[in-house]
Specification:
With 884 residues, the protein is an alpha+beta fold. Helix 3 crosses helix 12 and helix 16 crosses helix 18. A 6-stranded mixed barrel has the order 2-3-8-5-7-6, surrounded by 4 helices. The chain has a 6-stranded mixed barrel with strand order 12-14-19-16-18-17. 54% of the residues lie in helices and 16% in strands. The protein folds into 4 domains: 247 residues, no CATH class; 198 residues, no CATH class; 233 residues, no CATH class; 134 residues, no CATH class. The protein is elongated. InterPro entries: ABC3_permease_C (IPR003838), MacB_PCD (IPR025857), Membrane_comp_ABC_pdt (IPR038766). This is Putative ABC transport system permease protein.
């Protein structure tokens, strides 16, 4: 018989099947290597027919690999760029930061022996138009004559050359000095270079429009545009008063040897020489530590979403391999009849699947490698990209994810072909045979799954998050399989319906080879992830634009001097007689040690590390503050004079492992104070009122200079926007050194950042949705052969084209509707867990999301299903019946 002839189903086999003697000869050579060579030979022959039937397989793997590799490469490109330009971002090789005061002369002299020492001061202030018609919160940075010690400042008038900052500052005649400002300030005030603004008590000339500053990233995200001035001009503004919240940074640019080893030695010498200095030390290696950490966190999230799309695509991989094995049944039967053992059959097709997967992986890696180049073109100049363009480890990680996923989801249908006898394979198309697995099969699957899980956990930024993700994916998979089983069980038990169309649609839900399991799994995975992310996004937006703004005060006022606080309170009372004014003393402090352990050596959980990073706002009070509840311990007496005590936030104390009686060392105003925890408070952070992690007993800061912080909450009657504008204008004019922060503006700024992150989350989640649609399309396409046969039989029995279309449409609509309903339950549950346990925010159901989810699911399922059904209805009955 000609082995390359048409099979009984009218399909061509992959090519000539080797003779019995050829297989027997090769198998006589003992060992896996000989069988592997034989498998490669047969696989190569079978692949001459091309990649037909594997396009969705290719797309699913390529999409996931591109996502994982692209996100990993982008993260490394960004963090690598920050590390490479760390010296320019930091403004030197080492930086010492203190609040309220610059470093002492003795400390400055110690630094000067190693190189060039420069200094900057940073604070928030109010910039006003000279006529007082408008005002704006700005981020002031005052620099010395050495600035910039590394890199260049560039202004819009001469963007291609370094600006002479010192000359620009000095060239402002008829004012107290020159300043460089960000474009946003000019746009807001409608001003241009050469015009004047007022900051503090000084009138300043705009000497330039900042295009870029080398150390912009070191200061993080601000709530207002940058204003750059020199230290002499800052002194003239009278913004700096005793207790003012000013952050002083002293930078060291090493002379001669600037190796990492020397830098580490200098840092160690500084800590040894000034153990109680209370400063925060940064080196060029962590110049933008906060930004790098946020990039890595967001990248870790995106990698998990990419992995979710890859695993979702795994369903499509399994469908494609199952269809591929089914199309090769006669060939497999021939192999077995000629003496090929089951393991050789598995090897032949595993080699083919692996080679096809490698093609998909290469496609995905190609697009992943393009991501850093795209970032370099898209991102602004002040966000550096690493000089290295290709990141082999990230690409290798993505490729490994892709290969393991392909093996995991393709192994089950391959093992089925191995274990079923040749006679069953010949009959399988007419009477499908059950597959009896053994422990070796389960062991093999467990090994592959274990390798995939291990790779996820080992390469994850936060192992706990990765573990939760894997557990969640497993729960969703199992839940959707159970849902499919429930749909089929319920459909099987529905009483017989007299109408033909609904009866046919319902019977199709539970028939042998029904689409229900594959459609429920593929559509449900994508929809569940999409609903989860959208629910989180919308709840965050609601909190920022609704709940928080309703609870929050209208204004925060910063840097109110002690000798002005009573007059300032009277000023607010006159402007808003029915408003509520709160005031507290305000200082900045940094935790130096906890329970005798230096803060730099303390290892708290991720959620509490922010308490130990940099300095925090602190206060003192004779009575428990509002917006908090005493939950453990007792408050000190109003006239307490003993050992300094502190009240600590309860949740943060638990996470840091602190309890009543533990001792802390806190650096405030350059002085290290040892305090004992007297009680713990539960803080209502969501109130947006005045809250502090640490509240000290009043005797702790007796006689220390400090400023006050105040809030104003309006009664909400009348035109609130007009009232706020009037208060802001009057306060800026009467108290020019006080910084006024309108809470609505701050929340809008935060909302903008959240919205930008949300777009990134939506773009990432769209990958999983695309993968789901690909899998769904593959699943529906895989069932088209049976649909063609069914449609022909129905037409032969007298069913019209409209009736068949209606029956199939109803079936797809029911599948989409039920799957969407369960996806809503899963997505809402996941979003609730994230919001309630991780973000600690209330969860609110979003009916619009529910409606759109159901609508999308029904439309997508019907559209993809009917796209193939139309082809089924156009088939010639005679040809199909003769072939069947």
């Amino acid at each position: 018989m000609d082995q390359s002839a048409l099979s009984s189903q009218g399909e061509l086999t992959a090519g000539p099947v080797p003779s019995n003697r050829a297989i027997s000869t090769e198998l006589a050579k003992d060992g896996w290597f000989s069988q592997l060579k034989l498998a490669f030979r047969f696989a190569r022959r079978e692949m001459r027919g091309g990649l037909a039937g594997f396009y969705i397989f290719l797309a699913c793997i390529a999409l996931g690999v591109a996502a994982i590799g692209g996100v990993g490469s982008a993260s490394k490109a960004l963090t690598g760029g920050l590390a490479e330009r760390g010296r320019a971002i930091l403004g030197g090789d080492l930086a010492l930061t203190l609040s309220h005061r610059p470093i002492a002369e003795e400390e400055r002299s110690f630094l000067a022996q190693y190189g060039q020492v420069s200094e900057i001061a940073s604070l928030r202030a109010m910039a006003r138009k000279v006529d007082g018609s408008d005002q704006l919160l700005v981020e002031v940075k005052a620099v010395d004559d050495l600035y910039p010690t590394v890199g260049d400042v560039r202004v819009a008038t001469k963007p291609d050359q370094a600006a002479d900052v010192k000359a620009l500052f000095a060239g402002a005649e008829g004012s107290d000095g020159g300043v460089l400002v960000a474009p946003l300030l000019l746009d807001r005030f409608g001003l241009s270079v050469g015009d004047q603004i007022t900051i503090g008590t000084s009138t300043l000339t705009i000497a330039g429009n900042i295009r870029s500053e080398p150390d912009a990233l070191a200061t993080g995200v601000g709530f207002g545009p940058r204003v750059l001035m020199n230290l002499e001009t800052l002194e003239k503004t009278e913004l700096v008063q005793p207790g003012s919240i000013v952050r002083y940074t002293t930078r060291l640019k090493l002379d001669g040897d600037n190796s990492q080893a020397r830098l580490q030695q200098i840092e160690a010498d500084l800590k040894e020489a000034f153990p109680d200095a209370g400063w925060r030390i940064q080196s060029r290696g962590n110049a933008a530590e906060g930004l790098s950490r946020n990039i890595e966190r967001f990248a870790a999230f995106l990698v998990l979403v990419g992995l979710a799309s890859l695993i979702t695509g795994g369903v499509g991989i399994a469908n494609a391999v199952r269809a591929f094995v089914a199309s090769r049944q006669t060939t497999i039967a021939s192999y077995k009849c000629l003496g090929a053992p089951g393991r050789l059959v598995v090897l032949i097709y595993l080699v083919q699947i692996t080679l096809i997967a490698l093609i998909a992986i290469l496609i995905g890696l190609f697009f992943a490698m393009l991501v850093p180049f795209g970032l370099a073109l898209a991102l602004p100049d002040n966000l550096p990209i690493a000089s290295q363009s290709v990141f082999p480890f990230e690409l290798l990680k993505a490729a490994t994810f892709g290969l393991l996923t392909a093996w995991l989801f393709s192994m089950w249908p391959l093992l089925r072909a191995r274990s079923i006898p040749a006679t069953a394979l010949f009959r399988d198309q007419v009477a499908p045979q059950s597959y009896k697995s053994n422990w070796q099969d389960w062991a093999l699957l467990a090994v592959i799954a274990g390798l995939l899980i291990a790779l996820v956990l080992v390469t994850a930024q936060v192992t706990q998050v990765a573990a939760i993700f894997l557990a969640g994916m497993a729960v969703v998979f199992v839940s959707l399989r159970l849902i499919a089983w429930m749909i089929m069980s319920i459909a099987r038990r529905v009483p017989r319906i007299r109408q033909v169309i609904p009866r046919l649609a319902i019977s199709n839900l539970h028939r042998p080879g029904a689409l229900t399991p594959s459609v429920s799994l593929s559509l449900g995975l994508g929809l569940s992830l999409l609903v989860t992310l959208v629910m989180i996004d919308m709840n965050l937006q609601q909190q920022l634009t609704g709940n928080l703004q309703e609870k929050a005060p209208n204004f925060f006022f910063i840097n109110i001097q002690s000798n002005s606080i009573d007059g300032f309170e009277d000023h607010l009372t006159k402007l808003a007689p029915s408003g509520e004014v709160q005031k507290v003393p305000m200082l900045r402090g940094r935790v130096v040690s906890l329970k005798g352990i230096p803060a730099s050596e303390y290892e708290p959980p991720e959620g509490a590390r922010w308490v130990l990073r940099g300095d925090r706002g602190v206060t003192y009070s004779a009575t428990p503050p509002e917006n908090s509840t005493l939950v453990e311990g007792e408050w000190w007496d109003a006239d307490y004079k003993g050992k300094p005590l502190v009240s600590f936030a309860e949740e943060e104390a638990r996470e840091l492992g602190l309890s009543i009686g533990d001792e802390l060392e806190v650096s405030v105003l350059g002085r290290t104070i040892k305090v004992e925890i007297a009680n713990l408070r539960r803080i209502e952070w969501e109130s947006m009122g005045i809250n502090f992690i640490m509240v000290f007993s009043p005797n702790t800061f007796a006689g220390a200079p400090h400023a006050f912080l105040a809030t104003l909450t309006l009664d909400g009657k009348g035109d609130v926007a007009d009232q706020e504008a009037s208060i802001l204008k009057s306060t800026s004019a009467d108290f020019p050194t006080v910084t006024s922060v309108r809470v609505g503006d701050a929340l809008d700024r935060v909302n903008d950042l959240v919205r930008q992150l949300a777009w990134g989350m939506r773009a990432a989640s769209s990958l999983a949705v695309i993968a789901s649609i690909l899998v769904l399309a593959g699943a529906l396409a895989a069932g088209q052969r049976e649909r063609i046969y069914d449609a022909v039989i129905l037409k032969t029995l007298g069913a019209s084209r409209v009736q068949v279309l209606a029956a199939y449409s109803l079936e797809y609509a029911l599948l989409g509707l039920v799957t969407a309903g369960f996806a809503l339950l899963i997505g809402n549950g996941a979003a609730y867990l994230v919001l309630d346990n991780v973000m600690e925010l209330p969860f609110t159901s979003q009916p619009l999301v529910a409606f759109l989810t159901v609508l999308i699911a029904v439309i997508v399922t019907i559209s993809l299903g009917l796209a193939g059904t139309l082809k089924s209805l156009s088939a010639k009955p005679a040809r199909i019946l003769r072939a069947g």
